[in-house]
Amino acid sequence: MVARTESLEVLMLTEAGRFLEIHRGLLREKPTDRSESHNIAAERVTHQLVPQLDPARFAIRFNAGRVRRGDETWYIPGLYVAARADPPSLRDASQRFEIFDDPLSLVVEIWSPSTGGYDVAEKLPEYMRRGDREIWFIHPVELTLTAWRRRDDGTYAESVFRDGRLELAAVPGVPVDLDALFA
Fold this sequence. Notes:
- The protein has one domain: tt1808, chain A (Alpha-Beta Complex).
- 23% of the residues lie in helices and 31% in strands.
- The protein is built from 4 helices and 13 strands.
- The protein has helices at 5-14, 36-49, 116-130, 178-181; strands spanning 20-23, 26-29, 58-62, 66-69, 73-75, 79-83, 99-100, 106-110, 134-139, 144-150, 156-161, 165-167, 175-177.
- The strands form 4 sheets. The protein has a 6-stranded mixed sheet with strand order 3-6-8-9-10-11, sandwiched between helices.
- Strand 8, helix 3 and strand 9 form a beta-alpha-beta unit.
C-alpha cells in the first residue's frame, strides 16, 4: 500500500516509462496495450478539441500527468482538459510531476478490452468523488459517448450520445462532432 505522496513520486522516478496509478492505496500499472479502435477514438477527439481550446486558458493532456484525490488515489486519465489559472511558462514550470488536485473541466476515458471494466467500475466513481465537472466514457465499439455532468448540488446527470454534436458543458462553445468521432 502506497500512502505518502513522496513515496509515489520516488517510485515514479525510479520506474520511469511505466504508467503507474494508485487506486485506493493499491499500486497498479495502467496497461499500454490499447486496441486500434481506442487509439483512433483518442486521436479523433483530441484533434477536435485541440484547435478549439486556447492553450493559454486550458491544458489538454493525453495519457500524461496525474489527477489525484488525496494520497490514496492517483490516476492517469486517457485525456483531460484542465483550466489554467495563469498562462503557461516553461520558466516557472515545476520540475516535479504534473499533478492535478482540483476538479478538472473534462475527463475522458476510452474503452479498450484491457481497461474497460476497470475504468467504469473504479475510475469513473473516483472522478465523481473528485468533483470533476464533466466525465466522458467513449465506447468505440458500441459507438457511444456517455457523459456525466456535475450539477450544482454535486450530483451528476448521465446522458448517452450516439451521433450529432455534443458541446462541452464545462467549456461552452466547444463542440465535438460525434459523427466524425465514430466514422
